[in-house]
Design goal:
Layout (H helix, E strand, L loop, with lengths): L3 E4 L6 E5 L6 E7 L4 E6 L5 E6 L6 E5 L6 E7 L4 E6 L4 E6 L6 E5 L7 E7 L2 E6 L4 E6 L7 E2 L35 E4 L5 E4 L4 E3 L6 E3 L5
Antiparallel strand pairs: 1-2, 3-4, 4-5, 5-6, 7-8, 8-9, 9-10, 11-12, 12-13, 13-14, 15-16, 17-18
Length: 217
């Protein structure tokens, strides 16, 4: 069954964040600082969804007509925006983290034939294109200065692109470091540590330990 899940660092526990009304999930992006997980879905009802790191407060933040085949998605922490590329609309778009102020940054049927994965760094956005077997970049604010940054390099079926830098992964307090959870701990949207349980387990009344089985009233 298609779903969005997370797994503990030691790979012992798995938790389903979303399983209902999940069509064709494509890409995922996580903001530990803002305590949100985002994913794109190009099923029968294409959308970009957002939820807390424990799966709570799930909501579709971007829907049609702003997208059709949302592929890659990334978070720009420097501007608190999400960027995504759409393989059907031939666009790269951006929005605030709550889905407001959707803006088409670049529309180009010639350059964006089948954009698949995207990342941003400083004032540039980078994306892979399956139909052209290339890695491109452009200005992330206006889509200008499109460049083929893979020109002269042999690339075979480039899929995912990531930029690794301290500005892309800024440091933040680990609120779970001094918190005693029996199984899994995440940051809540209030900025505090939150114990959560893997599939098949429930949280006790103290909110710290998980026990096997479902809660009964």
């Amino acid at each position: 069954r298609l779903a969005v899940r997370m797994v503990s660092w030691d790979r012992k526990w798995t938790k389903t964040l979303a399983s209902q009304e999940v069509g064709q999930p494509r890409a995922i992006a996580v903001s530990p600082m803002m305590a949100f997980v985002f994913w794109s879905d190009w099923g029968n009802e294409p959308k970009i969804e957002r939820a807390g790191l424990d799966g709570s407060n799930r909501q579709a933040i971007v829907t049609q007509p702003h997208l059709a085949w949302p592929n890659g998605i990334t978070i720009d922490h420097s501007t608190d925006k999400i960027y995504w590329c759409d393989g059907r609309l031939n666009t790269i778009s951006s929005a605030n983290l709550d889905g407001s102020h959707v803006e088409v940054v670049l529309f180009s049927p010639s350059v964006l034939r089948l954009p698949y994965s995207i990342s941003v760094f400083e004032d540039r956005m980078y994306w892979t294109d399956w139909s052209r077997l290339a890695l491109y970049s452009a200005n992330k604010f206006n889509g200008e200065e499109v460049r083929n940054v893979s020109a002269g390099h042999r690339m075979e079926l480039p899929k995912v692109v990531h930029v690794y830098h301290q500005y892309r992964q800024p440091k933040a307090e680990n609120v779970c470091q001094a918190h005693s959870c029996s199984h899994m701990c995440v940051k809540s949207t209030f900025g505090t540590a939150l114990c959560t349980c893997p599939d098949g387990f429930s949280l006790d009344s103290e909110g710290l330990s998980c026990f096997e089985g479902e809660v009964t009233n």
